[in-house]
Each structure stands twice: as structure tokens, then as C-alpha cells.
Amino acid sequence: MSPAELAFYDRSVHDVAHDLVGCVVRHADTAGRIVEVESYHMEEPACHAFAGLTPRTATLFGPPGNAYVYRSYGVHALLNAVAEDEGIGAAALIRALEPVEGIDLMRERRGVEAVEGLCSGPGKLTQALGIWLDLNGTPLTGGPIELLPPDRIGINRAVDLPWRFCDATSRCVSRPWPPAMRTPRRRPARAAA
Q1: pTM strictly above 0.90
Q2: Is the N or the C terminus of the chain less surrounded, counting Cβ atoms within 10 Å?
Q3: Can you give the CATH number for the domain in which 71 is found?
Q4: pLDDT tens per residue, range 55-66
């Protein structure tokens, strides 16, 4: 199944989040490979849908395969992929990207030079890709924000739930890094000449 198909989103939000790692997010002239995702379900308090259906959460309870874009801390727009059956509030938050296209435009929008810092957080990546609140509720299949198959993808409640997924080989993952990335990597020993 591909993220370009609606059926991709009509299943467990945890499976959707896991399978988004490695996929590509494209908006206009910019794109990045998803390296970190976090899933949210209405049964846990960190999910906006936990409070029930409101004007803000209506997109979360809508059909799967739409973008849920909301303002965080009054400043940042965050991009989520709505998942599961209509009526169930669940979405996968796209937390970090590895930039692959439009890097100069991303640098201009973010005012950051280092590629690793352009999209290493959910508010950073939406700024870099030019995604804002007007894209809330738009389809992720054939809409202005596209989630494409890979080339061959901060809360203080329910933090103990293991619903954060990332590509542990990418240095573009948002901080704090998951435990697997905090362990220093050893360089292979060189053979004696």
C-alpha cells in the first residue's frame, strides 16, 4: 500500500505512523523524506481528540487521508495525517524531514543554513515547506500536500507510550533524540597495514 492511496490511512494510526517513515512529503517546490513520526489516538490524553469533537478537532474526526494542520503554542503550524475510520480521532504527526528538494527555498524561509536544522522539528518542517493553517482538511492524495512512497518518513502527557517512530540513521530527527540515537556510534577499527 502507498501513501498516495486512501486505504493507506484507513487503518491503525500506529501502523500508518510507522509506515510513513521513509516516505516523502511534497508541497509545491519543496520536499523532504520523513525521518520521524508520532502517532496520536483519541484514547490517550496527549491527543487533541481526547477532549472530543470541537471546531478545532473536526478534521481529526473526519475521513482518513486528510491533513490535520493546527497551530501549536500560538506560533507553529504542525502537519498530521488523519488515520483510522471516520469518527475516530487519530492522526500521525510528522515530526522531522530530511530535505530532498527545494533546499535553497527552505533555507530562505527558515533563515537557517545547515541542512540538518531545516526540518528537524514539526514546526520547522512546515515553515520550510510553506505549509500553513489554510491547508487543514485538504486531501493528502492529490491535494496540495502530497505524501509519496519512499524513493527506493513536544508532549507532557502519555509520554510513556512508545508511539514515536523515526529513522535512527538520520541526523535530521528532532530532539530530544530517541534512546537508540543517543548511544555514540563507534567507527569500525582500521586494519593494520
Answers
A1: no
A2: C
A3: 3.10.300.10
A4: 999 999 999 999
